[in-house]
Amino acid sequence: MAGAKEIRTQVASIKNTQKITKAMQMVAASKMRKAQERMLATRPYADKIQNVVAHLSHAHPEYHHPYLVERETKRVGLIVISTDRGLCGGLNTNLFKAVITAMKEWDAAGLEIDLTLLGTKSNAFFKHIGGNITASATHLGDAPSIVELIGTVKVMLDAYADGSIDRLCLAHNVFENTMTQNPLIKQLIPIVDEADEQLKTHWDYIYEPDSKPVMDALMIRYIESLVYQGVVENVACEQAARMVAMKSATENANDLIDELQLIYNKARQAAITQEISEIVSGAAAV
Amino acid sequence: MAMTLHVDIVSAEDEIFSGTATMVFAPAEMGEVGIAPRHAPLLARLQPGEVRVQTQEGEELSFFVSGGMLEVQPHIVTVLSDTAIRATDLDEAQALEAKERAEHMLADKSADIDYAKAQSELAQSMAQLASIKKLRERN
Question: From residue A209, how far is each of A11, A270, B10, B46 by CA, in Å?
């Protein structure tokens, strides 16, 4: 019975790990539900502000906001939203893969890239491989607040305002469902027109105090709300991915335990058979 | 029946109020504005203060906003409320902080991206994931 004891301790240790992964799975499941609710809670604001911006991009005779005007691109700003913690399967890796592909394309087109990083994972990744990082924020937590993003987003918006970047993009994971999360890179500014040319009656708002300050304030909030939505959605993705990863880890542990149990039983049986044959042959010898 | 307005008060993090009203008062930057049904389209900046909503039942509900935007269409009023207290200096300070964090992190890094390294690193972790998946399928 040489290996039996080792196998037993191995099974015990796998069982302990399994307890942890199971607990993490359940925690992730409950956090995911909350994150999804938070995701839905941000929708009304985003929809409303989008409506207003969509309208403004069509009807504004007196003041053209720079975010609505396309200009020649020399430098791209990219905001990358990653998770703070690992153990969530290929979530971050898939996103970084998409980001690197896009960056390579831009690089080939002769564009320079400025990065803003949210989440420790993206910080660690780009610290390793390099890149021109202009701002970063980490530890936004499970319930991120928009206050923590204002500064980070402002760095990029200022860069756009003073002409050091000519385009701003956002990379994050999109929550399709519990099983699927897909990386997405979308352009924030210049604001892309969503091709709704149904300008039936030409009307404009009354602006108070004036069209410029009102639109400035509105545009900043619009971009912030998009980034915030990305962050909240990424949290939901993180929890979903973690839940799935931990579920498969728990199942894996089960398989391992079954396998080891079989080996243990065989070893035990072999030891017993050997003992019997020793006794029998000993008796025969007497 | 008296004419009514649909009122939505939303913040980036939550929906605060949604319902009908006969009149809405909001603290616009140049003084409080009262919005009755069929008001002309208006877009205004709000300062911190109280948004009051008069409901059909004659009740008056009040909500505190720390600034934001007010959008008015003839029968719809939308208050895009800020969750944060906004001030230019405060935003500036936060932006500086974010920059500092990045600089701090990059103290000893070059600005050039090592694509080869990035790809090999990604390939490595993708391979890890793939082998985990294979391991699972085997069972």
Answer: 71, 90, 22, 10
pLDDT higher than threshold 70 for residue B132: yes
The pTM of the full predicted model, rounded to 2 decimals, is: 0.85
What does the DSSP 8-state code read for residue B74?
T
Tell which wins on pLDDT, B87 or B26.
B26
Question: Which residues, numbered 93 to 152 in chain A, qualify as contacts with chain B under a Cβ-Cβ cut-off of 8 Å?
Answer: 93, 96-97, 100, 103-104, 107, 113, 116-117, 123, 125, 127-138, 145-147, 150-152
For range A241-260, the mean pLDDT = 93
Decide yes or no: CATH 3.40.50.10540 for domain B91-138.
no
Q: B115–A100: do the CB atoms touch at under 8 Å?
A: yes
Which residue in the set A138, A155, A214 is minimally distant from B99, CB to CB?
A: A155
Can you tell me the ipTM of this complex? 0.79
Active site residue A169: no
The minimum CA-CA distance between B85 and chain A, rounded to whole Å, is: 9
A63 at interface of B, judged by CB pairs closer than 8 A = no
Report helix, strand and coil shares of chain A as percent, to nearest 5. Answer: 60, 15, 25
Rounded distance, CA A255 to CA B138, Å? 10
Segment B3-53, tens digit of pLDDT: 899 999 998 888 888 999 999 999 998 899 999 999 998 999 998 888 999
Domain spanning B5-87: CATH 2.60.120.260: no
| Cα-only R_g, chain B | 26
Q: Give dist(CA B125, CA B75) in Å, integer.
A: 55
CB pairs under 8 A between A and B: 180
All CATH 2.60.15.10 domain ranges in chain B, comma separated: 5-87
Specify the DSSP element, H or E, that contains A120: helix A120-129
| Cβ contact, residue pair B117, A146, below 8 Å | no
